[in-house]
Amino acid sequence: MGLASFERPRRRMVAEQLIARGITDARVIEAMRAVPRHLFVDEALAGHAYQDSSLPIGEGQTISQPYMVARMTQLLELKGHERVLEIGTGCGYQTAVLSRLCRRVYSIERLPSLHERARRNLRAARHANVMLKCGDGTLGWEEYAPFDAILAAAGGEGPPEAWLAQLREGGALVMPVGSNGRHVLVRYRRQGGAWCEERFDDCVFVPLVRGG
Ligand code: SAH
After folding, report:
1. Among 54, 64, 99, 107, which one carries the catalytic annotation?
2. Is residue 128 part of a domain?
3. Largest separation between any pair of C-alpha atoms in the chain
4. 0.85 exceeded by pTM
């Protein structure tokens, strides 16, 4: 199949999986329409890239379902000027979507093979406003803090201290919270000295591995 032929499944994915389910942010919709998801998965899976599901990306990890990528991104309410910290680069797809919606993305992946793969994918897609790091994302990225928004693509029992400390006042942190493979999307916002917490969709994510 030629590259242009994926245009159609991508448009259908946006209409049927995103807009029909309540994704309303025009910038998020535009980014999901633009990023070639099939180039981030194995060639053998390219034909499945626009289906309504997560897909394996190796090492027991997965690229999130398109709806979940759009949903988490929409919850960050990005306007374009933000510096965003992402935990769990994986194959780099979510990173590519974020990079079109903010000033700069700082993304951390603990597994070297996926970190390298994301680097190749993002270089091919010419995303110049992305910085990648291989390491333990639970520590955040002190050097570039504070961040305007934080997105975790792996689930845990709650945000590590470092993320809360590295989020600027008014900023949003979105993460799947729960255990045993059952999570709910939670958005935390720092307001004054307090944290406001809102719960959204039920979901299933790979675990956030603490300590490396
Ligand atoms: N957004 C990714 C989804 C990747 S799945 C994509 O579009 O492909 C979640 C990723 O989080 C996995 O690659 C996993 O290795 C990574 N991960 C888990 N715990 C981590 C940690 N403590 N630090 C950094 N990455 C972590």
Report:
1. 64
2. yes
3. 54
4. yes
